[in-house]
Design a protein that fits this description.
This protein is about 25% helix and about 35% strand. With about 190 residues, the protein is an alpha+beta fold. It has one domain: tt1808, chain A (Alpha-Beta Complex), CATH 3.90.1570.10.
Length: about 190
Amino acid sequence: MTAQPHEQPGSYVPEDPETALKYAIQRIKRDGRSQIIEGVIEQVSPTWDHEKAGARLQRQIDPVAEDLGCVIGAGNLDLPGSANWFVPDLAVVPEDLLEGAGALLPDQTLLVVEITSESNADTDRVVKRRRYAEYGAPLYLLVDRQERTCTLFSKPGPMGYEVKEGPRPFGAPVLLPAPFELELDTSRL
């Protein structure tokens, strides 16, 4: 789907609202990140505590991701057919998919990590969990800073994730299954 040119300079006529919304979100000029959650544009502005948790997880996953030929980042994830454009806190993605990619699909990731903030905790717990499952993200790790727990979801399907490991309190290890085979230390999140 592409936007069609319009007679007035700088404007366009979208083929559908989803295309228009996703076109707009990619052109917001500001520092930081923006995402679309169920049709609502949300500007993401993580706190340093939030970033610290992500950095600590990333350092643990980095060596395995490197061996798997993957990159860890917070790039755009498109959920076609819905009014959603997510920017996860971390995603592990095969490096060969990144060349020229503006956005990937959740089923192209190996792992998606969302770290809650007070402003978005319910979105990460409910909406993103449901949507990541629906769009085939194989592993979804929810780091709930308000509840001080980690929950790993796996085996996605249209009705949600079939397997839920946790919630485990911070300090209890979280085992990432194949292809990672990695035990995460959650004591310093």
